[in-house]
Write a structure and sequence with these properties.
394 residues, alpha/beta, 7-stranded mixed sheet, 4-stranded antiparallel sheet, 13 helices, 15 strands, binds pyridoxal-5'-phosphate, aminotransferase, transferase, pyridoxal phosphate binding
């Protein structure tokens, strides 16, 4: 990317965790232009169109166990739709369940439903009086010193069991970010937690909704992060990377079981839709992106990228100035020691002087590069980070 003075930057955060193959991917540019020659926009309310159908087929082919697609506009609006689907599913299955279970430190977007299932004090505390009914369990990614990921997962599983035992018949969905709580600073957690959440949701008749807005499209390795745990959710939200960052588009994927609760009387319809839902240009971008993801074996590439970045980052992690490096695939958080006001921000500013664009979440510097980043650029990104840390954190 180039700034207004013509200085060149490597985008180390994929814009906002969206860019798949780097900016201006020729195949995606061409797909949008081709779609523009056919249809600009057409409502999805009571209608459909070819790129929307094609995209639903592509998404479902990548997601064994899920059968239907409902489009929305961005990550937050997919989460809103998912929450409403979960509640309406409970109503239409014979027992209204007004409660959502979610994790502390969670982030699902900035609209009020998404904030309700969020758990970040700084972003969410102000709005508490306005929000949906929820029960919160601890973050499986926040470990005490010396505690292993498996031990921490076991602790939070106990909490979740207790919540479900007490209120499970009121819970319509357990909502979580699978494997990585991204906005909290890339808090990674053990897959055993996800498997237990699946089991407990089933045991108490609640749905499991995984929010793959950040983790989807191979960011963590497999196409979806929940696949690390070998589970199938009932609902999956995705957004961000599905269009490779070209245009806003998101979706909720659901099982046939959930979908079938909306069939029958007209009042059972899911009365929810946005003007720009499934915009054809956005669908065309997503179709081209997903075609390339499969053709170029994106999960395989991310496995290689993640392993090489882990190696490069080892000496960074050995520094006293670095508290911890958390990584799953190409989602990386480098937590630096808090030595001054806004240390993470200062580190990113120092990296920018070295031609690398990074963003902090508190004192955690995020590395979330395009998934096909070349080796020379990987070296540049990690060297700039290391030098920036050495400059700022003494
Ligand atoms: C897990 C998760 N869900 C939802 C969202 C919200 O997406 P959007 O910013 O597109 O509304 C985000 C954004 O970072 C996210 O990380």
């Amino acid at each position: 990317m180039y700034d207004t003075d013509g200085r060149k930057y490597l985008d180390g955060v994929s814009s906002l965790w969206v860019t798949t193959f780097g900016h201006r991917t020729p195949e995606i540019d061409a797909a949008i232009i081709a779609q523009l020659g056919k249809l600009d926009h057409s409502t999805f309310l009571g209608a459909t169109h070819t790129p929307g159908i094609e995209l639903a087929e592509k998404l479902l082919a990548l997601t064994p166990g899920l059968d239907k697609v409902f489009y929305a506009g961005d990550g937050s609006s997919a989460v809103e739709a998912g929450l409403k689907i979960a509640y309406q599913y409970s109503v239409q299955s014979g027992q209204p369940r007004p409660l959502f279970v979610h994790l502390s430190e969670a982030y699902h977007g900035d609209t009020l439903g998404a904030v309700s299932v969020g758990g970040m004090k700084l972003f969410h505390a102000t709005y508490r009086p306005l929000l949906l009914k929820t029960a919160t369990v601890g973050s499986p990614g926040l470990r005490a010193p010396g505690q292993t990921p498996v031990e921490r997962a076991a602790e939070v599983i106990k909490e979740l069991e207790a919540v479900m035992a007490a209120q499970g018949d009121q819970v319509c969905a357990i909502v979580l970010e699978p494997m990585v709580q991204a906005a909290a600073g890339m808090l990674t957690y053990d897959a055993s937690f996800l498997r237990a959440a699946r089991e407990l949701a089933t045991k108490y008749g609640a749905l499991l909704m995984v929010d793959e807005v950040a983790t989807g499209i191979a960011r963590t390795g497999p196409m979806w992060a929940h696949q690390h745990a070998g589970i199938t959710p009932d609902l999956l939200t995705c957004g961000k990377g599905i269009t490779a960052g070209y245009l806003p588009l998101s979706a909720v994927l659901a099982t046939d079981e959930v979908y079938s609760a909306f069939l029958g009387a007209p009042e059972k319809t899911f009365f929810h839709g946005h003007t720009y839902t499934a915009n054809p240009l956005a669908c065309a971008a997503a179709n081209a992106n997903l075609t390339l993801a499969v053709e170029r074996d994106l999960p395989g590439q991310v496995a290689v990228l993640g392993a090489r970045l882990a190696d490069l980052l080892k000496p960074v992690g050995d520094r006293d100035s670095v508290v911890e490096i958390r990584q799953l695939g190409a989602m990386i958080g480098v937590e630096v020691a808090n030595v001054r006001h806004r240390t993470g921000f200062e580190v990113c500013r120092a990296a920018r002087k070295r031609g690398v664009w990074l963003r902090p979440l508190g004192d955690t510097v995020i590395l979330m590069p395009p998934l096909t980043l070349g080796e020379a650029e990987q070296n540049l990104m990690v060297e700039a980070l290391a030098e920036a840390i050495d400059e700022v954190v003494r």
